[in-house]
Amino acid sequence: MSRSGKESSPARRIEALREEIRAHNHRYYVLDDPSIPDAEYDRLLRELEQLEAEHPELDDPDSPTHRVGARADEGFATVEHVVPMLSLANAFEDDEVAEFDRRIRELLDVESVTYTAEPKLDGLAISLRYEGGRLVRAATRGDGQAGEDVTGNVRTIRAIPLTLVGDELPDPLEVRGEVYMTRSGFRALNERLAAEDHKTFVNPRNAAAGSLRQLDPAVTADRPLRFFAYQALAEAGLGDNQSAVLERLREIGFPVSSLVRRVEGLDGLLAAYRDIGEARDALDFDIDGVVYKVEDFDRQQELGFVSRSPRWALARKFPAQEELTTLRAIDVQVGRTGKLTPVARLEPVFVGGVTVTNATLHNLDEIRRKDIRPGDAVIVRRAGDVIPEVVRALPEKRRSDLPEWQLPEHCPVCGSHVELVEGQADARCSGGLVCPAQRKRALEHFASRGAMDIEGLGTKIIAQLVERQRVDDPADLYSLDVETLAGLDRMGEKSAAKLVEAIARSKDVSLGRFLFALGIREVGEVGARNLARHFGGLDALMAADPEALEAVEDVGPIMAAHIHEFFSEQRNRAVVQRLLDAGVTPQAESAEPAGEQPLSGCSFVLTGSLSSMPRSEAKKRLQALGAKVTGSVSKNTRAVIVGDSPGSKLDKARELGVAVFDEDALAALLEGRLPEA
Ligand code: I6G
Questions:
Q1: What pLDDT shows up at residue 527?
Q2: Going by C-beta distance under 8 Å and a sequence separation of 6 or more, which residues neighbour residue 654?
Q3: Within a 10 A sphere around the Cβ of 370, how many other Cβ atoms?
Q4: Could you tell me if residue 520 is inside a domain?
């Protein structure tokens, strides 16, 4: 939309800005296709705010600047639903769906029925009333007959239009749907709350409910709430069937899920459940099932209601994703650098389609904060494809004599003293490479793709080599022979020979990869490459003092101290020397990268899972074109490249106005073209 109105009258400029901002909201929330960065959107909003402040006579309560209204200090008023907000009958099994379809065919006396299948969002149902095309009231479902007036809070949700798009709109219009919070928004919100020492939310649904019921709309406005519409009341006359109504709702400004589909008969119902179930993990929002509706409204009317549910609809639920079980023990695992990570050992429990026996407890602080004790009844959650986690303990079910969990004083693997890291939530085993667990992790890291890339040297083989004392450190790998390797479990002569070859091949390595392979704390792939380019050779790097190290791009005092410490240790210098003696030849990289570097000077962040390749490969290929690929978003990031289920980095990008690229843009980048942001 044009901004040429800048010089024209304030009234015209204000109207143009309002239109433009509404159009951007529509593109962002309804079409899922934003056309400007958030920073530009914010600039438009600020310009409008300023003009409205200068011209109070041109005020409009539905201006996009008026999303945050007054506090509801007296609590929320009660709203009677003129048409009750019904609940849906539930089904958990295919048989129940078959029975639903059979009953409907029988009542309608037809051979086959067309249905819609829609994802059932795990959020909160609300009803929105529009008069003259303007939002006049929003109410929660409550008990179905009456809910709470949450208009002030709902107005802050940008996905909900304050004014409708188009002419000849039904008036009044009542639209129903679900307010929800995205998974990425939920994670970012919880991180923020935890950083501010506030209570965090257990799941996105609770976060959405808690956010919508805030007495101060300014708090709601700050929460990442979204909305999907799924129903317009019958008298609205938006269409003759459910699909047509959803299409029309989209046209007039409401977000509608793109997963909705029209299906035929029982086979169609079951296939839609499977398809939506398969898409579930990749979504950025929680769904807890699929809602089936008879497509045709005349047929819906014919079928009518039974008690408080429509006979023409059914909610097919996914298996529960949170379950109650008992925490048998808390074990600690030892990482490559000795960091201890607690792991929950659980009474096996079936959650979200799999049996879970272990779950993450994230870190030591979290156990203290949540006061989780071995023996506790705990709630375990499996969200999508992520590692199962212990959500919380139920202290009300706790035996009175259950002691608090204590961090072990000695490493459970090597018995070395456990050190608490000052000012951090972490504890570490002090055993260094004496500790077999650290040794195994260090070897796994050494052999990994981004490091020495030794194909065939996996976790199980490394575990055997360490346990049989065949390998103590990476240098020992280079003296392994076929006979020794063939003697390991699940290893034949042929694979042993292949592995010996792969180990030999790895001797030819770039200095950057070699440095990364050494596993120096804080030194990632990018840091290692920068060091290699800067120093040009191993000797110069090993001799560098912290000050010289800090001169390298992106090397701060902490990383510099770790590098210096690493090479000051006689033990580490000896391993490096033995690697060189074994024929490992780290090749210096020139300060000027060779060949064409179309992306040099550009920094990217990858988030979410890519469908075209693993993230590690995308990273490598971008780096090969001269790009920098980092783990955190800053103002200097050229773009954040997003795959499915992006994390909080996407929010950060939007917050900072950093460009967001999809996989098509990534493909262009890999061809050396920089897409328009
Ligand atoms: O609770 C609900 C969730 C989703 C619904 C619903 C829905 O459609 C996708 N549709 C109706 C008609 C009702 N509840 C009553």
A1: 85
A2: 37, 38, 660
A3: 18
A4: yes
Backbone φ/ψ region at 458: left (φ over 0), alpha (ψ -120 to 50), beta:
beta
Query: Are 308 and 337 contained in the same domain?
Result: no
Q: Which of 337, 366, 397 is the last residue of a domain?
A: 397
291 lines ligand 1 (CB under 6 A): yes
CA of 291 to the centre of ligand 1 (A): 7
Containing structural domain, residue 338: 322-397
Integer Cα distance of 105 and 254 in angstroms: 32
C-alpha distances out from residue 325 to 288, 317, 321, 374, 532, Å: 21, 21, 13, 12, 50
CB-CB contact of 546 with 561 (8 Å): yes
Count of domains observed in the chain = 5
> Is 471 found in the same domain as 506?
yes
Please provide the DSSP assignment of 293-304 as one string: EESBHHHHHHH-
Position 153 in a domain: yes
Catalytic annotation on 619?
A: no
- Is the shortest distance between the CB of 312 and ligand 1 below 6 Å? no
The encoded tokens of residue 35 equal 């056309």
Strand ranges in 62-161 using DSSP code E only, listed in sequence order: 78-80, 90-91, 114-121, 124-131, 134-140, 146-148
pLDDT at residue number 4: 43
Q: Are 25 and 105 contained in the same domain?
A: no
CA 84 to chain centre: 36
53 and 135 inside one domain = no
**CA dihedral of residues 597, 598, 603, 605 (deg, nearest 10):** -100
Asked whether residue 408 is assigned to any structural domain, the reply reads no
- Verify that 456 and 558 share a domain, yes or no: yes
Beta carbons of 615 and 559 less than 8 angstroms apart: no
Q: Ligand 1 atom 15: the closest Cα is on which residue?
A: 86
CATH number of the CATH domain containing 363? 2.40.50.140
Best residue among 176, 228, 245, 292 to mutate for probing ligand 1, ranked by most atoms within 8 Å of CB: 176
The answer as to whether 306 is a domain residue is yes
Q: What is the pLDDT of residue 235?
A: 63
pLDDT at 663: 85
For residue 6, the model assigns a pLDDT of 47
- How far, in Å, from the CA of 647 to the mean position of ligand 1? 28
Domain co-membership, 206 together with 262: yes
- How remote is the CA of residue 230 from the centroid of ligand 1, in Å? 7
Is 648 in the same domain as 577?
no
* List of the chain residues with pLDDT < 50: 1-7, 385, 591-594, 677
Domain co-membership, 119 together with 260? yes
